[in-house]
Design brief:
With 65 residues, the chain is mainly α. The chain has helices at 2-44, 47-64. It is rod-shaped, with a radius of gyration of 21 Å.
Length: 65
């Protein structure tokens, strides 16, 4: 029974690690999508839009540093 218990623990740890990895990947995808929107907005907007986007990027850089 100890062998089965160890296998169950290893399986549970692997499932948790996979779930954590999936969550991290989703966060990264969301971040990339957000940055793409900011860059597209910056590219198509006027100077005022560019200034707002630049401030948002600087704020985000400070949050994630």
């Amino acid at each position: 029974m100890q062998i089965l218990g160890i296998a169950d623990q290893e399986r549970d740890a692997a499932i948790k690690a996979a779930s954590d990895d999936q969550r991290q990947v989703k966060l990264m995808h969301d971040r990339i999508a957000y940055l793409n929107v900011l860059m597209e907005t910056w590219a198509t907007g006027d100077d005022a839009t560019a200034a707002v986007v630049k401030q948002a990027l600087q704020r985000d850089r400070n949050l994630f540093s």
